[in-house]
Amino acid sequence: MSHAHVPIDLSDRNIELGSTGSVARLACFALGILALIAAILLAVTGNVEWPVFWRSWLQNWIFVLEISLGTLFFVFIQHLTKAGWSTVVRRPAEVLASNLNWLWLGFVPIAVLIFMGDAGKLFPWTDMAMLAEEAPEEAHLVEGKLAFLNVPFFMIRAAIYFIIWAFLGTWFLRMSIRQGRDGGLAATRTMQKMAPVAAILFGLSVTFAAFDWMMSLSPAWFSTMFGVYAFCGTATCGFSVMIIVCLLLQRNGYMVNLITREHYQDMGKFLFAFGMVFWAYIGFSQYMLIWYANIPEETGWFLARQLGEWGWFSAWLLFGHFCIPFVFLISRHPKRDWKTLMIAAVWMLFFGWFDVYWLVMPMIPHDLASFATYDAAAEAYASERTGIFRPVNWLLLVGMLSIFAGVTIGRLRSHPLVCRKDPWLDKSVGFENF
């Protein structure tokens, strides 16, 4: 990389939203609340079963959570590597990551459901009597995991995750704001020292949260690679939204001559590397090892995602999350053009949601192990449906994403879009790829 001298416009008009976005913010809140109410009414009126509603709630909440976790990863990895190129794009990422201090609210209904003893259809390990009646062999396996999978410890772990994420998301934004106010190197050095700690806490918390909230939906199943796969999901969603936000800001006349094609190319590289290549590598490695070992407790999870419509769904995930965008974004040119990069980011964001749906929504049939051959199981469950077109899925997606967007717009209005006194700012604005 190299650096060129470029005039820096740090005027309020260029890097502060002011009253801009107030209508969009209110519209997002209104749309989000109405969509959530409509989704709840579908369940209350019996148009969708409550277990389906709660599974869809969990899926969409995890998707929105992944956006903030992915941008948090971007923030601390820049400080960890002492990267200067990203200074002008870091504030939008910091704001997106700061949403972690309120996203825990989406978990509250799930927690209430568990405490009320009604979560057996969502997390089978919370109702061992029902599990033993429906699938005694599975219940026998799960009994050995109850030291970990029990309600008190589950809730304690959830609280720890939320505390870690809320602290890191809020702390990095506050330190960046302090840097913009006071200048100097103190805040930068403090964030660089904090970055390794953040990386360790992030890696552990994301891994165990994935075990708790997604892997334990099928409690007899296990995969030591699942946490890394879940991390790829956070990178996909976080980098996609970060690109979308930066492009929308610039298309509306902000951050002019601050974010350039060079920065978009590097953000595109991040999306390409983590959201496509690393995701495919981890996904293939996990599948290959489980297929090769051929252990029934492990293979059933993938078999459930090949029955009926889920087979086509899995194929679409592979092509949509990797094959198609890999070809589209492998060249430097689509990363440097705002139109093609926007298309890629929106596409990858959708398939990030698609991926979480694939992880959360399928249920392993309790009698799957009783079939002598795969063909017999495939024939018995040929009518299995994905349910992706259920209105409740899209209402919850629109509701949660709209509220997330509304809060994000409000926070972007509250702070300058660039850290004015960051010591790396000059180099960042003049950054060029070789």
Task: Give a verbal description of the structure.
The protein is mostly helical and 434 residues long. The chain has one domain. Helices cover 71% and strands 1% of the residues. It contains 18 helices and two strands. The protein has helices at residues 12-15, 22-44, 50-80, 87-98, 108-115, 128-134, 136-143, 151-182, 186-213, 226-251, 261-293, 296-304, 309-329, 332-336, 338-360, 374-380, 391-414, 425-429, and strands at residues 2-3, 431-432. A two-stranded antiparallel sheet has the order 1-2. α11 packs antiparallel against α13. The protein is globular. The mean pLDDT is 95.
Provide a brief overview of the structure.
The protein has 18 helices and 2 strands. The protein is mainly alpha-helical and 434 residues long.
